[in-house]
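Sanity check record (used in CI):
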Amino acid sequence: MMTADELTGIIDQICPMYLVVDAGGRIHFAGPTLKKLRPDMSWKGVKFFEVFDLLRPRWVNSMDDLLKTAGAKLHMQFRESPQTSLKGVLAPLPGGKGALINLSFGISVLEAVRDYDLTSADFSPTDLTIEMLYLVEAKSAAMEASRQLNLRLQGAKIAAEEQAFTDTLTGLKNRRAMDHILARLIGSGTDFALMHVDLDYFKEVNDTLGHAAGDAVLQSVAQVMVDCTRHTDTVARVGGDEFVIIFEGVNEPKVLEALSKRLIRRLEEPVPYGGKLCKISASAGTTLSSWNPAPIEAAAMLHQADMALYAAKRAGRSQHLFFEQGMQKDEPQVAAQSQA
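Expected output for GGDEF domain-containing protein:
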């Protein structure tokens, strides 16, 4: 014959969340998983209704009532926190000596695994909970992999978009980015100023020292322009040695005049390259959105800044002018000057 301890050991493996209660409602045995849920509690001799709240059937108020639920589904929870929900079924013991109650977590199994750090060893080998946990773990792993992939794709998308709006040589915005920003500012009705900057004597640097020197000069110019502007401003390289600066929220000519003088003065500082000094200057023309009637057109403002720029070149270069009505772009004369 099998001893009580041997029988208990077998039940522990098959039903690790069982209780044996006597006719008076006192617990005699508890499965190993239940003991893990309350490791500091001494189960033996404790009354069932001191440990659990029986939620359904609602008419159960005593041990006699509980014994009448044989075969029915029981819904209960721990009285103390964490009040983990449990499902159960009761089987009476022979001779009216009490009952064996087999419990499970039901749909609260995920919370239980989290709250009590449970593993597969805490469940019956035939419990479908194990398979569900594997599926949940696999799903979590797949979702994490998907999240990481989405992050990489999003990062690649952002990088591609950034590259599409960036001048690769100088790191400044390009013409496409400038068009996008102008459209946003005009669409929002924000005041802004637009300055067109063109380098003087840049062709001479390329012709005498080579394109590598020219590239070094352009990179230096880009840094100067960034240093002389705010982080909210936009500096874009729109041609070989042409730049556009957009000053968001600026409509004061005095502010722009002071900035243009500082910028031109900085750009006149020689750029060292290969043991030699590359000397350039810059001319600039500016217009303001507030000078244009609605609806403002980006092309019209770019044309105004362009005409002011060429007026500055005709006036002797290395200076800045604001757009005025009646300005003309004398392209042949400017072209001849730029070759000088």
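The longest strand covers residues 192-200. If this sentence no longer matches the regenerated tokens, the check is flagged for review.
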